[in-house]
Predict the structure.
Amino acid sequence: MIITIDGPAAAGKGTLASSLAKKYHLAYFDTGMIYRAVGLEIRLSGQDINNENIAESYAKSLTFPKMMELAKDVRLRDDIGGKYASIVAAQPKVRAALLKMQQDFALNPVYADGSKAQGAIYDGRDTGTVVCPHADVKFYVTASAEVRAQRRYKEFCEKGMNISYEQVLADVKARDERDQNRSSAPLKPAADAIILDTSELSIAEVLAQAEKIIAEHKKTLEK
């Protein structure tokens, strides 16, 4: 079974994806990590994040082992890491270079320890529209910009980061603008995706809705 979960930043994709991966024993691919990894490599090298050719060269050299090593760096998940990921993700050459890696995972899904899995769940921006358009179940998780900014602001505060809510909100809106208006694979729900608005829902409520939809899909297959 292949499940895709797309949506804007801080909508709750990761929380839902990790929960469903555990419940259904699926390999979890956070596609945002590969863009963060490319952004982090450029950041560490001190090169221009807006230079698409430079970003493409890093994307082409990215491997799973290298991505897992970069994931140990706390800067991969900070606010600058998010900005860099969004910038490189808007570059067509970078997306093209990383697409095959993402698609191959569906053909041979593996857990973090390398053992084989029977299916995969993707967390990203275009996994239901571009990466796995033939996925069994597609979700598009969203929430208002204000709610998402509040969630992200809380995360940053818990990490001891000195940043204002207003700045976080501005960053969220700027990222939405980049993601929704990029020329290559703009952020939008797949035509057959189920929309889950998490603005007023708890994690448990979102998970319950998703599980119900997956159960209905399985019943359809059994008929």
